[in-house]
């Protein structure tokens, strides 16, 4: 029986490299490639028995850790491995704190990426060898906002992503093929869940997750 792995990255060349690593790691595998958080949501719905998601931290529809937090909140049984250009200990630690099953630097050689995929499919949490020895010394942190973010439904998260891109209710309704009244209902619900009063506060809170990631990278660099 073949396994199903979803590769979520907005760079076609890197998706191709990851696909090569996946096929090297797993003998019988179906690979689904997506390039945004919205298409990732669609892929998870269309492939409910997926075994693993390889997720780039920064891609369309997500800011910093928000995509990971959403995935863990909505699909807790689906392992997510972060594949990132960042190799900072603080960023890696935060990714693990937010529920990632592993962290693969984009600079890792193909064989190492294949080993990581095999390890996570076997139920392990995988980190690069040099990181695993140091990670416990990095202070764990937790964000109340991330817990709230994890409670959003897929559609609410998609609407939130569109708000952060500055889209108007009318544009969101058109893109999602729903009425403006439905969009307003989603916005009201997500404001309540996130504990914010308006779209500006919501956007700032989400963007803060990206700033937080960048700050941690700068501090540990």
From TrEMBL:
All copies of domain HTH luxR-type, residue ranges: 145-210
Keyword DNA-binding in record:
yes
User: Where is each Response regulatory domain found?
Assistant: 4-121
Q: Which PROSITE patterns match?
A: HTH_LUXR_1 (PS00622), HTH_LUXR_2 (PS50043), RESPONSE_REGULATORY (PS50110)
- Tell me which InterPro entries the record gives: CheY-like_superfamily, EvgA-like, NreC/VraR/RcsB-like_REC, Sig_transdc_resp-reg_C-effctor, Sig_transdc_resp-reg_receiver, Tscrpt_reg_LuxR_C
Q: What is this protein called?
A: Response regulator containing a CheY-like receiver domain and an HTH DNA-binding domain
GO terms, molecular function: DNA binding
Q: Which domain of life is it from?
A: Bacteria
Q: Which organism is it from?
A: Hahella chejuensis (strain KCTC 2396)
Pfam families attached here? Answer: GerE (PF00196), Response_reg (PF00072)
Q: Known SMART domains for this protein?
A: HTH_LUXR, REC
Q: Which GO terms describe its biological process?
A: phosphorelay signal transduction system; regulation of DNA-templated transcription
Keyword Phosphoprotein in the entry? The reply is: yes
């Amino acid at each position: 029986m073949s396994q199903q792995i979803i590769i979520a990255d907005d760079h076609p060349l890197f998706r191709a490299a990851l696909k090569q690593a996946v096929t090297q790691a797993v003998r019988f595998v179906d690979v689904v490639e997506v390039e945004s958080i919205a298409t990732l949501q669609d892929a998870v719905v269309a492939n409910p028995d997926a075994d693993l998601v390889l997720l780039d931290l920064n891609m369309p529809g997500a800011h910093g850790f928000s995509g990971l937090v959403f995935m863990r909140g909505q699909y807790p049984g689906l392992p997510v491995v972060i594949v990132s250009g960042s190799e900072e200990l603080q960023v890696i630690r935060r990714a693990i704190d937010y529920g990632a099953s592993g962290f693969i630097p984009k600079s890792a050689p193909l064989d190492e990426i294949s080993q990581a995929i095999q390890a996570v499919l076997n139920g392990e949490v995988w980190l690069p060898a040099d990181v695993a020895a140091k990670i416990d010394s990095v202070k764990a942190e937790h964000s109340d906002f991330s817990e709230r973010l994890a409670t959003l439904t897929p559609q609410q998260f998609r609407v939130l992503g569109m708000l952060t891109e500055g889209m108007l209710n009318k544009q969101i309704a058109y893109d999602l093929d729903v009425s403006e009244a439905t969009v307003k209902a989603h916005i009201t619900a997500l404001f309540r869940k996130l504990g914010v009063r308006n779209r500006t506060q919501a956007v700032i809170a989400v963007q803060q997750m990206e700033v937080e990631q960048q700050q941690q990278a700068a501090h540990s660099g």
